[in-house]
Amino acid sequence: MVKCKCWALSTKKDEDKLLEDDDSEQIIPLDQIIPPAIVQFLDDMEREKPIRFTSQQVRIATGSFCSILGSGGFGIVYKGIMSINKYVAVKVLNGTSNKRIEEQFMAEVSTIGRIHHHNLVRLYRFCFEPSLIALVYEFMVNGSLDKHLFKANQGEMIGFDKLHEIALGTARGIRYLHEECAHKIIHHDIKPGNILLDSNFCAKVADFGLAKLCNREKTHITMTGGRGTPGYAAPELWMPLLVTHKCDVYSFGMLLFEIIGRRRNMDTTLGDSQQWFPIWAWEIYEKNQLKELMIDCEIEEKDLEVVERMLKVALCCCQYRPENRPMMSVIVKMLEGLLEVPEPLNPFTHLFSGSNQPNVSATRMSWNVSGSTWSSSV
Ligand SMILES: Nc1ncnc2c1ncn2[C@@H]1O[C@H](COP(=O)(O)OP(=O)(O)OP(=O)(O)O)[C@@H](O)[C@H]1O
Ligand SMILES: [Mg+2]
């Protein structure tokens, strides 16, 4: 008799049985046993909201946590498999569980799990047990954008036409969170590490809703209720000011600068004037010296128009005052070229306190080297 392991699409009872019976010899996809219409129905049911996993199921899906994809402020991310050709990324969250936070967790997870958009990473399953809290996401073959943007080998860089599509896809994903889904969601941590790329290099925003779920102390700041990664976090996140969805717009602007420069915004190995890319880019823009930007960022003539548009949008997004930053729907239209980008004002005047030189300690507050350096000169 052929044993089959197809619990991703089976009932809870079947799943438990199959998990007990883990010495399966041959794996047969469920769609070879059950009529396609039923598989489709079960698939649709599954898509509706995330399903609960036991810690044992998580362990089996990840092959006892044998393949690490990466780690971040929330915990470690493992590669896993749910059924044939259905790979997943399992994020094991730091922290402990108890009955009180379980309710809140379930509420948040159910919100995140019901959000479906082409440019947002799907949450399939979750686990909440005293020994393990984990989220099971769709697997993104091409990993996160930072790995492609900050490659040492310039020859393998993604071209600007694709980067523009990635920026646009990201903007559409954030627009959905801010303006289109039933529960308005502020991401709080937009950065290249949270933009994942599928097999076609289509951008999907990851980790939305997590800011509400977890507290991250090691690599992320938590002040006045707001959170974010240094270098991408808007100024109001470290000041006693109201935090709105405009903090994501600021971070998106910082992300755009990194896309244009195909480098981290802060690079201490470069000369003083270029160490912090956003200020350098503003000066280039102000003096209308785009030729210099083209040479330094290896931008070809054919891409100049689209890069200039992205630069102007980035400068609009990083305005110091949240109310001066555009809404994501406006940003999408500007990136699509359907709306003219207004002439941006200098977003960094607050960093120049009376002199022509940027205030170094203030600048440090806005940057981050590899996500790890956070100046305490605040
Ligand atoms: N769904 C996924 N598919 C493929 N790889 C993923 C997926 N989710 C995460 N990863 C990989 O795991 C790495 C770590 O992700 P993680 O979200 O834990 O950290 P981060 O994004 O760098 O920081 P943060 O904690 O602020 O989100 C990512 O950089 C990415 O390479
Ligand atoms: Mg992440």
UniProtKB/TrEMBL annotation:
Top-level taxon: Eukaryota
Residue span, Protein kinase domain: 63-349
Membrane topology category: Single-pass type I membrane protein
Binding-site positions, ATP: 91
One of the record's GO molecular function terms: protein serine/threonine kinase activity
Listed InterPro entries: Kinase-like_dom_sf, LRK10/LRL21-25-like, Prot_kinase_dom, Protein_kinase_ATP_BS, Ser-Thr/Tyr_kinase_cat_dom, Ser/Thr_kinase_AS
Ranges that cross the membrane: none
Location of the protein in the cell: Membrane
Keyword terms, alphabetized: ATP-binding, Glycoprotein, Kinase, Membrane, Nucleotide-binding, Serine/threonine-protein kinase, Signal, Transferase, Transmembrane, Transmembrane helix
GO CC terms of this entry: membrane
Family statement: Belongs to the protein kinase superfamily.
Identification of the protein by name: Putative serine-threonine/tyrosine-protein kinase catalytic domain-containing protein
Lineage: Eukaryota, Viridiplantae, Streptophyta, Embryophyta, Tracheophyta
